[in-house]
Design goal:
Structural class: mainly beta
Shape: globular
Order of helices and strands: EEEEEEEEEEE
Number of helices: 0
Length: about 120
């Protein structure tokens, strides 16, 4: 069974960058749609961005367009979330998820990681 482990979170100043990793084990991530989600304190979880099984990017949130990108490394069985120009409102618990369906338009994700905390603060 596929397992996902996120890493790369931490404390960063506004305007800084972080790269989050979503490492898969138990199965290859190739062919899955992989999405990144975040939950800010006191708010519901929101979808941020997704990469389809054919490596097409879909933004779930307009607030990260132009600042966040997603990529896949099949050799390392890992999906990355590159976050640039970070803002305090990007603070939250970030999780990745895998969807057996290879398209980002399917809202039902099948496997979830535990997440990693990102704090943007001066």
């Amino acid at each position: 069974q596929l397992q996902l482990v996120e890493s790369g979170g931490g404390l960063v100043q506004p305007g800084g960058s972080l790269r989050l990793s979503c490492a898969g084990s138990g199965s290859t991530l190739g062919g899955y749609a992989i999405g990144w989600f975040r939950q800010a304190p006191g708010k519901e979880r929101e979808g941020i961005i997704c990469i389809s099984g054919s490596d097409v990017t879909t933004y779930y949130s307009n607030s990260v367009k132009g600042r966040f990108t997603i990529s896949r490394d099949n050799v390392r069985n890992t999906v990355y979330l590159q976050m640039n120009s970070l803002k305090p409102e990007d603070t939250g618990h970030y999780s990745c998820a895998a969807n057996i369906s290879p398209v980002c338009s399917d809202p039902l994700y099948d496997y979830w990681g535990q997440g990693t905390q990102v704090t943007v603060s001066s």
